[in-house]
Amino acid sequence: MREITASGQTVEEAVQSALEQLNTTRDHVEVDVIDEGKKGLLGIFGSKRAIVKVIIAKNQIEQAEKFLQEVTENMNVSTQITTKVEDNHVTFELSGEKIALLIGKRGQTLNAIQYLAHLVINKDGKAYYTVTVDAEGYRGRRKETLESLAHKMADKATRLNKKVALEPMPAFERKLIHSALQGNKEISTYSDGVEPHRHIVIKP
Length: 204
What we know:
Elements: E1 3-8, H1 11-22, E2 29-35, E3 50-56, H2 60-74, E4 79-86, E5 89-96, H3 99-103, H4 108-121, E6 130-135, H5 138-160, E7 164-165, H6 171-181, E8 188-192, E9 199-203
Parallel strand pairs: 5-6
Antiparallel strand pairs: 1-3, 2-3, 4-5, 7-9, 8-9
Protein name: RNA-binding protein KhpB
Organism: Virgibacillus litoralis
Family: Belongs to the KhpB RNA-binding protein family.
């Protein structure tokens, strides 16, 4: 049961009645007041009951978890999902046996799963979330690889005194490169090309 219409002497009483029937709490529902009701003479004669419609709000994070579970099952990978929420950022940490299948070459499969999870979580929810899908610490390792690549390529650009183009990457990975080279006064970085072939160029 996702929604219920209930009545009571007051709006609050009607809402309370609906919550009990739905077996949930106030912070998990949306309330639509159909009729505020009215007190009758001496509080009795001619009184009209308040009517409300109470709908269980979809839990966006649970929906995304369910989606990730389905995707990994369809890929025949048995996965445990640990969810961390900080403000409006959600991290789903995946762990399991054949986790390399979920990561894919240079994290491409994981990036695709992350993109889809981002769409699912924000599909028709009220809150907007940014999403990270990680698999057994892959994101941390990838960050280190990208930072070391950034410095290596910056040195190359300075040494040869010419532009160096990196391989195409998703926006959040390009951001890591920009950040890693921010303090280097000898070069500048910019993104070039059109998604999904957008890449970073390091220029002396």
